[in-house]
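note to self: dont lose this again. the chain is below, predicted strucutre after it. 157 aa total, dont forget to put it in the shared folder this time
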Amino acid sequence: MSFQTRETKLHRWMKWGAVVVASIVALLIVVAISVYFLVRQSLPALDGNASVVGLTSSTTINRDALGTVNISAANAIDAARALGYVHAQERFFEMDLARRSAAGELSELLGKATLKMDEAKRLHRFRARLTTALASLSGNERAQLAAYTAGGECGAG
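---
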């Protein structure tokens, strides 16, 4: 085998190696950009206007530089709806975990690791107690709670 043949084979391998490395780098860049936009898309829109079904008057949600929320509403029902909207935007996963934890249903999401905790929580029958507590609320309190829930559904959607 001559020196030139070895050199030609070496150049061919180097050329293919460079193509493979460049392809892998390009693929990693495409994956990184895709992940960035998918994660970015899942974040709540904190600027601009949003249409929240059921508001009876103009309601404003402002956030300061630290992200602290200030709600301005003409009545308590609209304020509750706006608060539910904000909570769902910012804390939906936390709210879902708290609901599942209180009901003893974390194992449905996290598996066997939380089964003993779920069994202990179910002894307290928090869901049944909540139903009893809801029945004792006044009409105005129920309306505020319903508005909060509706705002949460809108904010999560």
